[in-house]
Amino acid sequence: MESNLNLIRQKLPSQTRLMVMVKALAYGTEDIQIAKFLASCQIDILGVSYVDEGIALKRAGVKQAIFALSATPAEITKILRWEIEVGVGDQAFIQALAKEASIQQKEIKVHLHIDTGMSRFGCRPEEALPLAQMIQEAPFLKLEGVMTHFACAEDLEQDPFTHQQINKFDAAVAEIQALGISIPWKHAANSSAATRFHLPQYNMVRIGLAVYGLFSSPIVRDSLKLKLALSLLSRIVGINVCKQGETISYGRNYTVEKPLQRIAVLPIGYFDGLHRHYSGKGWVLVHGQKAPMIGNICMDFMMIDITDIPTAQVGDTVLIFGEDEHRNFLSPEDLAMQGESIVHELVTCIGPRIPRIFIYEES
């Protein structure tokens, strides 16, 4: 992760601030431990989706600034109590936040979110200036940043749309600045945009997948050679020798084809994040050799065919994605694609029973 952060910094203009997104338990890893590690990498601001995610980090002693992508009026007292920076794009919410901040005599930092094409959060570009003025005039609100979010920065064919978003955002920012309103941080790029586009007009990026060496499309992978920072491994807990014609798992949708097949059982199932739509569509590695997934994935277990790996036995390590101790490699992006999913979903859905083991060098 530290190597990836350094590579990303080298790609960006020298004064660019990195906000690392630790939403969704830091992409399914462990948000508190990752957040504290990131402090040692000179990351001074972290991003989350929900206010409560930020509060959990603060309760655990995380010292960096916390930015929440969105909030509701019911969370305003939490925002003030825990000093969460928050994305805003709604007049009523800004007014309610300003009112409560004034009552408490407490300054709160906000980032004006301008919707340039994602159609999720934020104001329309033509609404940005009056909202920026409203924030500027509120004595206890500080306009800390202005932001937008790209909808498809990982897709080469969608680059004209991304450039439209950039142009809309730049025009809105220019209009705000023309009135003398200061914008400390201008941010739009996620991992894909930060690695693919040269955007020196912005001075902060929001990095998520790239920290872990994951990518959302082949063109993003080719833009920056990052190191995969996480792997998923299991162990064989049972071996069955099945005869031709016998069936495997719930639904009996896999039939043994050979006179004898060795079927191994792994203690990982759809509760643990390998959803049923991965059933029968990919493979794992045992002793560096491919072992196809067979039968329906169960809640707690899945089965693989180890017929062609005669040395495989109970207790052996199984690589599901990433890299094992022998440098065998399986791409998490390929596994996600085989399961008709995306790598974001694959890693963030890894369940709580899977132990997270952190490996790093202490100076």
UniProtKB/TrEMBL annotation:
The modification N6-(pyridoxal phosphate)lysine is found at K23. Coiled coil: none annotated. Gene3D superfamilies: Alanine racemase, Lyase, Ornithine Decarboxylase, Chain A, domain 1. Catalyzes the interconversion of L-alanine and D-alanine. May also act on other amino acids. Residues 229-359 form the Alanine racemase C-terminal domain. The keyword Transmembrane does not apply. Belongs to the alanine racemase family. Substrate binds at R120, M299. Its EC number is 5.1.1.1. This is Alanine racemase. Pfam families: Ala_racemase_C, Ala_racemase_N.
